[in-house]
Amino acid sequence: MLVTEKPGTIRIVTTAGVVSAAIDGVPPVKYRSNSGLQDIVLDPDFASTRLVFWSFVEPITPTSFVTSIARVKLSANETKFEDVTIIYRANPSYTGYQHPGSQLLFCKNGYLFACFGERYDDVIRIQAQYLSSPLGKIVRIKKDGTAAPGGPFAATPGALPEIWSLGHRDPQGLAFNPVTGDLWESEHGPMAGDEINLIRPGYNYGWPVIAYGYENSGPLVGKTVGNGTKQEGMKQPVYYWDPAIAPSGIAFYTGTQVPEWKNNLFVAALKGKHIVRLVLYGNQVFGEERLLAAEGQRFRKVIQGPDGALYALTDQTVGRIYRIGAK
What we know:
Strand order of the largest sheet: 3-4-5-6
Distance between the termini: 20 Å
Largest sheet: 4 strands, antiparallel
Radius of gyration: 19 Å
Helix content: under 10%
Mean pLDDT: 93
Low-confidence stretches: 222-226
CATH topology of the largest domain: Neuraminidase
CATH class of the largest domain: Mainly Beta
Shape: globular
Number of strands: 21
Structural class: mainly beta
Oligomer: single chain
Number of helices: 3
């Protein structure tokens, strides 16, 4: 497993739990609170290309940062990243370090989906509604960082052609439903109102105009920005939490080790300190189970491994990886 650590290191962890030294070649990372080294994915053609992609908070100046995507080549001896290229920057850079995003996910056509937060502060978060900005968006790009063809706003004057959806606050997870092929997303709300969304191209998911939850400063989001929880033309979440659990990485289970989990959606919860299992019927949630709550860990990521088990990564000073499956 390739594992990122927020301060800016990447390591290999074997199936036996042996942790490697840090791999050389990672560019500078701004690490503070939510900022740092974020998600990591392999090129679908990794066996031949050895390409790796990751998202990170990049320092542009000592006081200004941007969430970026790097493309690198892992050396044959797995000790160094080579040919480091920054293929995408979610400009503008900004002094704040909250809500950088960003999860990465390749689709079956070889395009890369990436989600970006709206950078939290009132002065900049409204850009989640601007088609000229990647903040508060899910984008779809090619491996060189340019817009993938056929985007919903490709013909819209002034819009970034890579934008797939808009109106997101702090998106934390992306996954494809194995039954329908639909893209699903997890997202931090303000004080409550954490969301699971079914993502459709061109849809507006409302932030900061509508939300379920309270502003961090106290009043209802709707009272602050004027529109409450619903507005015509803005998509409702499939599911939301109140109180907040801080959902992060998500994964659909397609393995056979635990048959009753088939096609269920698993959600890593940071504040909740557990793994959520959501039972779906079509595009509706019919049940919720909470796993590993007794461990007391901030769960950052959950994925399915090639052995059919789930693997969960924690966001702690001393991090852990859990294997969840049959013995």
